[in-house]
Amino acid sequence: MNSGETPAKKNWWWWAVVAAGALVPWIVLAFQVRRYGVNLPFSDQWEFVLLVQELRADELGIRDFFKQHNEQRMFFPRLIMMGLAVLTDWNVKAEMAVNLLLGMAIFGITFVLLVRTLGFLRRWVAVPVVVASALLSSFVQWENWFWGWQISWFLPLFCLFAAVGVLTLWPRDRPAWPAIGLAAAAAFVGQYSLLSGSMIWVVCVPLLFVRKSFRMYLIPWLSAAAVATFVYLRNYRTVAGMEYMRAGVDQLIEEPGTAVGYVMYLLGRPLLNAEPQVGAGVALTVIFAVAAAYLLLFKRDQRMDALPWLALGAYAAGAAVATMLGRLNLGVHQAGSSRYTTLGIVLTICTLALVSLAVLPRAKLAALSAALPGNTSRAPNLANVSGHGT
Q1: Of the candidates 323, 72, 340, 311, which has an alpha carbon nearest to the alpha carbon of residue 191?
Q2: What are phi and psi of 263, to 5 degrees?
Q3: pLDDT tens-digit readout, 175-211
Q4: Burial of 95 by CB count in 10 Å (0-12 exposed, 13-18 middle, 19+ buried)?
Q5: N or C: which terminus of the chain has fewer CB atoms within 10 Å of its end residue's CB?
Q6: Is the predicted pLDDT of residue 379 greater than 50, yes or no?
Q7: Which long-range contacts (CB under 8 A, 24 or more apart) does 236-239 make?
Q8: Three-class SS state of 61
Q9: CB of 330 closer than 8 Å to CB of 251
């Protein structure tokens, strides 16, 4: 090789292909949303008309954003939608654009976490990156892309990924309190966007516990979660959504098989668009659980790498259960709604990462990557990649 030619220059074509594979799905999605998105409120979105009327009558107050929508307090989604309504004269396509940006931001965090976790794959890390991009931008969740109201769905997911990303990637040589503050802010925004966003406080606890510099903030973290939840439940009303949830709990007790089938259907829907989605959900959940147990019990050196994916996967599974409790009375097939498929997509990506950690030998993968044409770079420092060390 020419002494002036660096490996990076020689391998530019590989990373160009990877970038194209990761970005093209989002470019296609953006064009489709721009072309087929319709500036017309739909379903729950019509309730926003009341807020717009109050704004124009100069009667809009902070409490109006805090009001319940079914079992949710959609404070931050309403705030964003109102800002967009003012700027665009309530063109709901602007809300679709925000959903697209939030989806891309979620992929960006996923990309960084995949590179950090699976850095030992060297060039082969491109495979899970491209797969994650294709899944997250998939039209299987078309309802979320073409319904601006789903800001309330994407925003808490972005907050989840942001909180997990900050707690995982924060440099060890920097003070811990800014990371805790950022993660807590993300958890707060997620909670006040969707009820299932409350679980961000819970799934992040292991990430605080395993890192010594974060551990001292566990009590403040739990205290903040308790205060946020107390305020959330203050003057909480029994609404139709809560009646659905009570009915779901009753049905779970009476027909546990049906309840489990709903959750499995929801999680398996992104993998199969036909029968048996329930079987796909069961397979996905079992593989995730087995890979997680194997890493936690037998791969002590890879536990830190597995934790962010365990947190993200636990949220996806927990949100699926919460959805089941609130919607089970509508029938098992309601779990196949495209708006819910994001949870199965997240769990699929988490499972892919955990399985890669569990079954792919690092030494062999490093050797295989080194054998690729033009790859003359040395293996990465795994301690730096995984975040281990002091």
Answers
A1: 72
A2: -65, -45
A3: 999 999 999 999 999 999 998 999 999 999 999 999 9
A4: buried
A5: C
A6: no
A7: 236/68, 237/68, 239/68, 239/70, 239/71
A8: coil
A9: no
pTM value is 0.87
Contacts of 363 (CB under 8 A, 6+ apart): none
In whole angstroms, how far apart are CA 171 and each of 112, 178, 180, 211? Answer: 14, 11, 12, 11
Does residue 238 have a pLDDT over 80?
Answer: no
Task: Say what the pLDDT of residue 332 is.
Answer: 79
DSSP 249-269: HHHHHH-HHHHHHHHHHHHHT
CA dihedral 21, 27, 29, 35 (to 10 degrees): -150
**Residues 294-304: pLDDT tens digits?**
999 988 888 88
Q: Are 108 and 78 in contact (CB under 8 A)?
A: no
Peptide bond into 276 cis (omega under 30): yes
In DSSP notation, 127-187 reads HHHHHHHHHHT-GGGHHHHS-GGGHHHHHHHHHHHHHHHHHHHS-TTS-SHHHHHHHHHHH
Query: What radius of gyration do the chain's Cα atoms show?
Result: 22
SS3 readout for 280-333: HHHHHHHHHHHHHHHHHHHCHHHHHHHHHHHHHHHHHHHHHHHHHHHHHHHCHH
pLDDT confidence of residue 17: 78
The burial class, CB within 10 Å (0-12 / 13-18 / 19+), for 131 is middle
State both tokens at 146: 């073409």
List, for residues 156-181, the tens digit of each pLDDT value. 999 999 999 999 999 999 999 999 99
383, amino acid identity: A
